[in-house]
Amino acid sequence: MKKLLINGEWTAGSRGRTRKIENPATLELVDEVVEGSAEDVKLACERAAEAQKHWKEIPGVERAKMFHEIAVKMREDRAILSDLLTREGGKPRIENLDEVEWSAACFDYYGEIARHSHGSSIPPTGAHQVNFTIKEPLGVVGAIVPFNYPLLLLTWKIAPAIAAGNSVVIKPSELTPLATLRMVEHSMDMLPRGVVNVVTGTGADVGVPMVDDPNVACIAFTGSTAVGIQIAVKAAQTLKRVNLELGGIDPLIVFEDADVDVAVQGAAWARFLNAGQVCTSAKRIYVVKAIAKEFVEKFVEHTKTIKVGNPMDGETDMGPLISAKARERVEDQVKRAMAAGAKLLYGGKRLDVGPGYFYSPTVLTEVTPNHPVVCEEVFGPIASIQVVKDADEAIALAAKSEYGLGANIYTKSLNYAMRAMNDIKAGTFWVNDPLTDNDAAPFGGMRKSGMGRELGEEGLDAFREPKHVHIDYVQEKKSSWFPYARRKGEIPK
Ligand code: NAD
Fold it and tell me: Which residues approach ligand 1 with their CB closer than 6 A?
């Protein structure tokens, strides 16, 4: 049974309740985890606030050493971390090995850039003045994480937050807390007590009190738009900072000059990666008519080759969905799309490749902009292909969305690329290389896909605020002070 981490102590929490963590591929019990409560959150946030007072004084160069050690330990522990990620979340082991590496790299990156910048020097407005800014940590950061990339989306928050001198209280998804607990216990044990705390449990029991807690200065949240809005509304009542990484219905355009074979495989990977449970999945695929027939035929053939099965198997391309509820939701979305006129070219059914929540990679065409699979976020392996007349129509339809997380295109034309880049509102724009992130570049969404950025220097600034310091090193009386009678002559007649 796995416990909560509060102020360096592993505790069974105030409630004495546990939750079973199920393997979504095999339905076997992976482990049990303590269900945290509002009381546990309060204690963790108090202790984190105390720990932060000392942590913020540690020089960046020392923090950097600890961060590199964390990264080394994570890499050494990759077999266990990727095993846990696979058994609790259902992603193929190969993808989870990548996730561990990317998460370790994030610690290396923030260890260095946090000691590189601390504010700036500003030209003064008068004689014998000195002006500069220092970027101060916010205090305690509450990190609330979804199920699909439990370590990666966590490290994008806690690496910059801790590097900037904050302490953190982590709330993993109630479905996937195990790799997080392992990483904190095994790889982050050199950090002073209380700097990192973990309270596992549900959104209602742990997430809500964390957003309300007076010791929490900032909520860094990744998850659905619906929950993100609830958090923003609540946080506004105490003017708590929020960084919100929310849902997406990203477009992927294949222009007529694209290499069709490359675009087919790129688009299929961008849609079926992690069984379509990726915020930046290519959820709307637009193909220009001139190449549509060839693209769709090849896309269906390629989809048939995707190997669905136990994610522990090294040859598996796609595992199950995370839960029974998630699969039912996807089934319902496909059913409604087909009732509205979408045509099923492949899949559209459960797969009997194991006891878990498997669903076939699915290809739909003749979808229209108002179909549920196009205007609702589909968090499952459903490729929705829309054939469009030409490049203008492709860009116009791709740009039409309430969301703005990412956008992908396949083209050799600089003209198409620049027009699409200008017209489509999205936090990341990928040309010929879908879904590739870079620790040094900001990641985040526009519109209903969120506010704020993770990664890059922006991701560090999300957890710091500037203080302007103004110094006059000569003490003298100023002519602008009282009495104003001295300045009477300045008033226009
Ligand atoms: P979710 O919103 O259901 O849950 C996310 C986290 O919030 C979980 O830890 C959950 O327990 C917690 N939570 C739930 N209700 C809460 C509340 N009222 N207050 C505080 N916390 C609460 O999301 P999910 O199903 O775990 O993840 C899928 C969603 O996440 C999709 O919409 C996906 O697009 C989005 N996502 C976005 C990004 C991004 O970077 N923009 C990345 C991954 C996933």
Answer: 144-148, 153, 171, 173-174, 202-203, 207-208, 211, 222-224, 227, 230-231, 245-248, 279, 377, 379, 405, 445, 449-450
